[in-house]
Amino acid sequence: MHIPDGFLDPSTCAATYIATLPFWILAFRRAKNVLSDKQVPLLATLTAMFFAAQMMNYPIVGGTTAHLLGGPIVAITLGPYAGVISMTLILLIQALMFGDGGITTFGANVLNMGVVGVFVPYVIFLLVKRVAGGRAGLLAGSFLGAFFGDLLAAVSAGFELGLSTLYFPYSLSIAVTAMAAHHSIIGVVEGIATVAILSALMKARHDLLQLPKVEPVWFRGLSR
């Protein structure tokens, strides 16, 4: 899903940086007030785990890639703003150290994987948990959130690529279809991985799931 330099036109790069900027500001500001000594090690562990998981990717049409995201489990356990920070750090290191992604496309990659890929799973998780209730609702919400978060993040990347007609050789329909098709399968794996990690935390360290979430204040009513 990492979009390299040279695949998006300048206006799309600028627009995605502008769209992502408020999330960076709010995420770091909120994290400064909420993150505690108990949450930081979990955030670091999940970030390191999915840094490695994202390095295992395979190419799809036009030069971008498909892989697990990791954003859903970070959002569900620590809150969506923590997910924004985690994905930003992962994508920055990958772009600077491994050439995976790009600098001009960094805003787009964070918007797709660090904003869409964490807020969509978190909202779906909260809604399903509230409607279904109990352990079953919690696990069903985490699976559905991870699946649709992965899928919509890929569709967002497909739109950005498909709209950059002067730089990307494939049409909007091909780009979106290719990204959605691959990530509809990966989304299932992402859902299973998210449920597995959440189940392990519920069994071994349930207290970590009760810690305050790094989330927008308007989510508090839904998350309680």
Walk me through the structure:
- The protein has 224 residues and is an all-alpha fold.
- It has helices at 10-34, 39-55, 71-78, 80-98, 106-132, 134-163, 172-204, 220-223; strands at residues 58-59, 65-66.
- It has a two-stranded antiparallel sheet.
- A hairpin with a 5-residue loop joins strand 1 and strand 2.
- Helix 3 (71-78) packs across helix 5 (106-132) and helix 3 crosses helix 6 (134-163).
- It is globular and about 50 Å long.
- It starts with 9 loop residues before the first helix and ends with a helix.
- The model has no long low-confidence stretch (mean pLDDT 89).
What's a quick, concise take on this entry?
By secondary structure, the chain is mainly α. The chain is built from 8 helices and 2 strands, in the order H-H-E-E-H-H-H-H-H-H. It has a two-stranded antiparallel sheet.
SSE layout and pairing:
Blueprint: H1 10-34, H2 39-55, E1 58-59, E2 65-66, H3 71-78, H4 80-98, H5 106-132, H6 134-163, H7 172-204, H8 220-223
Antiparallel strand pairs: 1-2
Helix pairs in contact: 1-4, 1-5, 2-3, 2-4, 3-4, 3-5, 3-6, 4-5, 5-6, 6-7
Low-pLDDT parts are none
Number of separate strands: 2
Beta-strand portion reads under 5%
In DSSP terms (H or I, runs of 4 or more residues), the helix count works out at 8
The overall pLDDT, averaged over residues, is 89
Largest sheet: 2 strands, antiparallel
Shape: globular
Distance between the termini: 33 Å
Query: Percent helix among the residues?
Result: over 70%
